[in-house]
User: Which sequence fits this backbone?
């Protein structure tokens, strides 16, 4: 039988052991949350279907989940977006690689960097109507083509002309504002127009043009090696906030995969963000962008967001030649893959 004294002694040691155990046990602390970083982001154009990845990332909280306080503003063209990012008004933006290449060459010391390509192929095209009798790019010789002077497809038409043997001296360009582009084609003031296919096509349909009468010569169908739009960032912000840039890219990558899986729902978010847009039109625009510009064979092979170095070199060469730039920058001056999520997270 255990004596009362022995029992009391054991109890004392038990209490001491428990107390000591409490003090020497490791304390499990919750993982620290990432520091919240504010990012001002400017789009290339209005809030439309092709801009859905950024809207979904914002509306569904993907940016917030990454510890980012992001504001997304509409833009007025890639050149405008790039200029605003370079000025410091925005830390990041969305614009075409051709506009970025031109800016970097012309503004040494202020260069920006692309970190994630959304449009693997640009939507650049020449569009006409069947009654114009233009059945090939070569048939554009002797015709009038309408477009704004700063229109990217117009400025890069020399690339298409070289690829198809078109004599550019036989092309008559008619300058106009964007709202007059499609109406001028329908009214017969010009024989063709240049523009983004997913915009010009839907604008023509909205003007009651029979879709079967629309003829499009998409630049990438003729071996033109160009990349489209990408996320761009100021170098100083990229260097001082590398983790924030990586988190931003990860959020957009996740949102883009969701857009691909359910474009109809993505169009709902576009409508939620801008109640004035026509939800069904933006759904169609998004579907066109996914089919022609985002879900390419290269993307299925290399994953979302990445570039092929050899193709990027051809893009740079084409832009430098067409724009008459003073030098040809190296691919590393235009794009970096250091912020891309692992390939398995970008595979579709």
Assistant:
């Amino acid at each position: 039988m255990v004596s009362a004294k022995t029992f009391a002694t054991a109890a004392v040691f038990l209490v001491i052991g428990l107390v000591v155990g409490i003090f020497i046990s490791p304390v499990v602390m919750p993982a620290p949350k990432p520091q919240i970083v504010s990012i001002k982001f400017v789009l290339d154009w209005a809030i439309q279907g092709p801009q859905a990845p950024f809207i979904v990332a914002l509306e569904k909280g993907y940016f917030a989940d990454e510890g980012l306080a992001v504001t997304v503003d509409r833009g007025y063209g890639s050149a405008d977006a790039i200029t605003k990012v370079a000025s410091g008004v925005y830390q990041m933006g969305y614009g075409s690689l051709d506009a970025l290449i031109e800016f970097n060459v012309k503004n040494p010391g202020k260069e920006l960097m692309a970190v994630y390509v959304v449009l693997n192929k640009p939507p650049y095209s020449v569009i006409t109507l069947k009654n114009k009798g233009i059945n090939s790019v070569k048939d554009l010789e002797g015709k009038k083509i309408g477009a704004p002077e700063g229109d990217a497809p117009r400025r890069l038409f020399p690339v298409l002309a070289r690829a198809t043997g078109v004599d550019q001296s036989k092309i008559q360009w008619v300058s106009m504002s964007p709202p007059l582009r499609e109406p001028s084609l329908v009214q017969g003031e010009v024989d063709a127009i240049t523009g983004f296919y997913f915009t010009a096509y839907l604008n023509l349909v909205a003007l009651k043009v029979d879709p079967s009468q629309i003829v499009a010569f998409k630049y990438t169908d003729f071996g033109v090696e160009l990349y489209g739009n990408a996320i761009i960032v100021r170098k100083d912000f990229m260097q001082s906030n590398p983790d924030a840039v990586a988190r931003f890219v990860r959020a957009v990558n996740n949102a883009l995969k969701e857009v691909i899986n359910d474009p109809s729902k993505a169009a709902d978010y576009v409508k939620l963000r801008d109640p004035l847009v026509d939800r069904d039109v933006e759904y169609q625009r998004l579907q066109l962008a996914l089919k022609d510009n985002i879900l390419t064979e290269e993307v299925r092979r290399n994953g979302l967001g990445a570039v092929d170095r050899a193709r990027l070199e051809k893009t740079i060469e084409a832009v430098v030649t067409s724009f008459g730039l003073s030098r040809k920058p190296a691919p590393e001056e235009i794009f970096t893959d250091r912020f891309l999520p692992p390939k398995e997270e970008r595979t579709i």
